[in-house]
Structures are given as C-alpha cells and as structure tokens.
Amino acid sequence: MSNLEMSTKHLLGIKYITQNDINLIFNTAENFKEIINRPIKKVPSLRDITIANLFFENSTRTKISFELAEKRLSADVVNFSASGSSVKKGETLLDTVNNILSMKVDMVVMRHPAPGAHFFLSNHVDVNIINAGDGTHEHPTQALLDAFSMREKIGDLKGKKIVIVGDILHSRVALSNIFCLKKLGAHVKVCGPPTLIPKHISALGVEIEYDIEKALAWCDVANVLRIQLERQNTKYIPSLREYSLHYGVKKKMLDRLDHEIVIMHPGPINRGIELDSDVADSEHSIILDQVENGVAVRMAVLYLLAGKRNLAKS
Amino acid sequence: MAAGRVILSPDRFKLTMHRLAHQLIERYEYFEDACIIGIQEKGVTLSQKLIEIIEPEIENKKVTFGKLDISFYRDDYRLREKPIKVSPTEIDFSLEGKKVILIDDVLYSGRTIQAALSALQDFGRPTWVDLLVMVDRRFNRHLPIQANFTGITVDSLDAAYVKVRWSEKENDDKVFIYSAENYNP
User: Fold this and answer.
1) A314 to chain B: nearest residue by CA?
2) What is the fold of A140-286?
C-alpha cells in the first residue's frame, strides 16, 4: 500500500515533493470533488485550524479558490493583501508574517513576487506554508490541478504527450507543470517564440518546438499559457498581434489535426491573443473543469498538510 | 497472521448473518423508504453480504444502498499516529425522509458512528437511523451510542483487538479476538 502521508510539511514547489505525494493528493482530491458536488459542500475536517491567506501580489481566482477550499474544510480564514497594508509602510516580510502568526494561525497560504520567499519563511516560522505562486518560480497547486484535470480527461499521464505553449520564460505555471508532468512520467514539450523560451530549459528533460502547428500535431494535451502583459518590461515579442498570428491557437489548426487534443489554460485568458474564443469555448477545452478541480485539489493539499500537524507528536 | 482466538466460527457467523438479515426484514419488510448505508470499508462488505441474503427473501426487490466514508468527519484526525485512508463516498440519493440502516463491522468507542451521524446530515434529514453492527464491544464505549441490531456482543479488555475477517471463500468469514501483544493486522 502506498504511503498515506505527505513527505513534506510544506508545499513550496512541485520540485520538492515526491511522485507518491502527487498521487496521494490526486486520490484525496477525487474524494473532495465528490463532496463539493453535494448539496451540502462542506466537511468539518479542519474546524480547529486557522489559515492566513497572504497575497503580496494580485490574484483573483487563486485566492477565491483557496478561500473556498479552506471554507469547505471548515477552517477559519483570514485574508491579507499587500495593497493598503503595512508592507507599503516598509515592514519586512518576516515581521509581517510573525505579526500575523502571533494571532495564532496554523497554516499560511502565500503568494509573493520574490522567487524563494516561501523558502525563506519556512526556515523562520513554524507553520505549514503553501506556495500560491512565487514570482517566476513555482505555482504548485496550479500544476497539480492541471495534471489532475488531464488525468481525469485522458487517464494515467505516463507516456502521454503534453505541450506547454506561450511565455515559458516568465511562467511559474510552466515550471511547476514541467516538474509535475515529468514526475508523473509524461513527455513534455515547450513551444513559444525563442525570446520567451529560457536558456537551458532542456536540462529539465523537456524538448523545445518553435512551430505551434507541429507541436499541436504531436501532443495529446496543449496547455496554453497567458501572455503576461505585466511582465513584459523588455520587448520580447514585436507585438501582441504578431504573437497571436504565430502562436495563437486557432480553431482551423485543431480541425487540421488527425486526432483530438485537449486544450487547457490556467486563466485569465487573453481571448484572441493566445487562444481564440471558438477554441476556448469548444468541446476540446477543459478550462472550466480546471477551475472546479482547483478547489478539490487545494482542499486535498490543505487537508493532507494539516495532517502533518500531528497533535499527538507535538 | 498472528495467533488470534476465533470467537465466531464460520458456521455460527453464517447463522448470525441470516439472523441479522431476517431482523431487518422483520422491521423493514420490503425496504420501501428505507436504505442501507455501509461505513467504509468493512461496513460496506458487511452491508453487501447482508443485501445478498435479504434481496432473494423479499421477492428480489432492490434494497437502496450507499457507501459512506467518514474520514473527513473524524474528531481525532490530527491525534492519530497513523494517517487515515480515505475511501469514496457513494450515496447518489437523498436521505430526506428515508429510514436509514447504518452498518459497521465493530462498535467500539462509538466515535466512528458519531462521525457517521454527522456525515449523514449532509445528505438530508432521515426519518430515523438504526445501527447494525457485527460486533458490539459493549464495555469500551466513550459515547452514549448503542446498536439496534447486534451480531455478537463481546466483553473485551480495552487493550484487545476484535477483528472481522472476511474470507474470499464462500462461508468462511470469522470474528477473531487478539491480545494487544500478538495483534498484527
């Protein structure tokens, strides 16, 4: 029987958890998915736990998804966002978090613009830390829900072909996806303009494809990423129109394929840029399933990590 | 398997199963407005075996049956040494106005049943809930919970383990009692 406990106390990134952890999260998430489809979508598992959602960077869906997951596990929730807080007055990250922890918080879900902020914190505070995105580094729960959604649609990912399309350079979703899919035994290609593909990415065991049509013809699943307009201080692409012409996924491309592929997107979609509306809304797309699964997967992560706070041992 | 003492042999086990099935038929006749809910995992096995006996006796009418997992409702989730294995819950009907027969293999502290009762509330308001167990360890209760139908009553030490062993073979199910030293699941 496989292990029923997570190997780590925190979820800092997919890189630091095992394949068994991932499968444990998936199996638990399946049970939570059944629960969130009941008329009463709530269980009392974490009724004695307080969770702080610390968002030092903007987020809409991840924050809502985490908050719903926490509430459906009956946890108490406090929310914090950097805008309008003392961070703007010059307080350090550690001071901010320690202040919040003094109010007896058990778990921290954090998004921070600095890659590695969660690592720093995990060395200094004694709570479970869940990474909800750290700069351009990792976004583990997104990768987990992506892989969970793929698995739901096409079965075991071992040997399956997945292409990640778009801005790989700035994307924490891409990096976490690569780690997660490789751990599950999938073949991974990245596809995008050369300026948006990081140097040495092949060291992670992925292949590079610059031609979107070839990439789509090869794959079982295409995970299309958002062009991150807010991270384009330097000009990586000549224009959005040109990006859309060369790398936007269009209906006619899918019609030309000899097999059905699954289209995914972590949202928010720039319709008409990386993904055309008729693709995003087609039967190929599982974008809304991803959102639903996001709550179930996050419930599983919170539930399993809370189990690491063993009161009998402490 | 470590040496345990058999307290219910396969022959008597079979008799007990038939008695329990008939007790249920006596109370519920054709099981209209009634349903059986088995608690994962051993309670589900017990429920299925009982339904196999019941259905031919009631003109092959179908008994409504659901599986309930109570992992997420346990009050000792973070107090346990061993993590809990989560199994699926499969109740695709409402319990609103239903007469529920809740089934588990061993009734010990009563905490599983307490968790099951709060889990059941999420599926509607049943008319009533009856509890059926194979083994009632009556002196080990932590909560005021009693079974309505009991296979065998065991007066055991707190430290002992009582196990229902379901066999792959026909008519070879047994109930064992182990002392704490030689218990090795």
Assistant:
1) B79
2) Rossmann fold (3.40.50)
